[in-house]
Design brief:
This protein has 339 residues and is of the alpha+beta class. Strand 6 and strand 7 form a beta hairpin.
């Protein structure tokens, strides 16, 4: 059966690797990182359920599409396989076209879910439509709640319990914390296409910071139940969503280290370059009316210190200042200063 199945797939121009038992199959999957796994249930050393369980616990293999082949045709057997995270379940004997169709569908679907979706409200809906390809996610609605916010509005506040995840569709938002003296530290910057407010939801704790609108904004609300349905019900969607949501974790950790050890000049250079990368409308221009208070919150120092250091940067020809707008003239020099 294994040899016949491999030959059939090779004739369809797929590259195939085979394993004679579940234990070897797990090692091959971990080493080769295939695009798809086809697995029998009744196998020596480790059965198919065990293979799926082990691979599902490994972050590097958990998102690989998984198809069960089995002579066990009872509904309970199929339900067990699907509940463990299998993407498809074919009972033996099966037609060659049936297997090839299942392989093609799973590969195509996984390619869509792995690809970067357009970071707009329409792109978000496209992503959810793909997620609804499985029966368990068909109840997801396209009618996400969208809210409009004015400058200085709070999207959420410290101490409140999250009811969902925010997806920014317009505008600019910051998250920040304040100490006992009222001094503010900016903890995150967000714009169109960014997710926000998910950390507290994942940890099931109240928000530890405040989300404040910097420019008029709109946000789509992804309800809590729908968010966790995506994470827990479908391995492909979970892998995609987790990748999106965790993309800035390493950056945040590095920012904390720089905040603790770098000089004000280095931190301000870092902040300007970060803002340029995040918000610039032209390659070498930070075209944004940024308050000195917000900039001080990013740098982690007093507003007066930021204002004084900006004047130094201007005198050194690094930037130009017109009101609240800052243009970066020599990004390469700022980069060298940051490093």
């Amino acid at each position: 059966m294994r040899e016949n199945t491999a030959e059939m797939l090779e004739l369809a121009k797929y590259k195939v690797i085979t394993a004679e038992n579940g234990k070897i199959g797990v090692k091959l999957a971990q080493n080769e990182k295939p695009d798809l796994i086809i697995c029998d249930i009744m196998m020596p050393e480790l059965d198919g359920y065990g293979v799926l369980h082990v691979l599902g616990k490994d972050a590097t293999t958990a998102g690989i599409p998984f198809i069960f082949l089995s002579a066990k045709a009872e509904k309970n057997d199929q339900r067990l396989g699907m509940s463990m995270g299998a993407d498809d379940y074919l009972t033996k004997p099966f037609e060659h076209t049936e297997l090839l169709h299942a392989v093609e569908v799973r590969l195509k679907k996984n390619e869509i879910l792995r690809s970067e979706f357009t970071r707009t409200a329409e792109g978000l809906n496209e992503f959810f439509k793909e997620a609804r390809g499985t029966d368990s996610l068909k109840e997801l609605s396209d009618n996400k709640e969208k809210r409009a916010y004015r400058k200085k509005d709070n999207i959420y506040t410290e101490g409140n319990h999250p009811k969902g995840v925010f997806f920014i569709t317009k505008g600019k938002v910051k998250t920040c914390k304040s100490n006992e003296e009222g001094k503010e530290l900016v903890t995150g910057l967000y714009k169109e296409g960014d997710f926000m407010g998910y950390t507290a939801l994942l940890e099931d704790i109240p928000y530890s910071d405040v989300a404040v609108v910097m420019e008029d904004a709109e946000a789509v609300i992804i309800p809590k139940d729908e968010f966790f349905s995506l994470l827990y019900t479908n391995r492909d969607v979970a892998g995609k969503f987790i990748k999106i949501l965790s993309g800035n974790v390493a950056e945040m950790e590095n920012n904390l280290v720089r905040l603790a050890y770098n000089s004000v000049r280095k931190r301000l250079a870092e902040a300007l370059l970060t803002l340029q990368k995040k918000y610039a409308t032209e390659p070498e221009k930070l075209d944004m009316a940024l308050s000195r208070e917000d900039l001080a919150g990013m740098v982690g120092t007093a507003t007066e210190t930021v204002t004084r250091t900006l004047s130094d940067f201007k005198d050194e020809g690094l930037i130009s200042i017109k009101g609240r707008n800052i243009a970066i003239l020599t990004p390469d020099k700022l980069m060298r200063m940051k490093n």
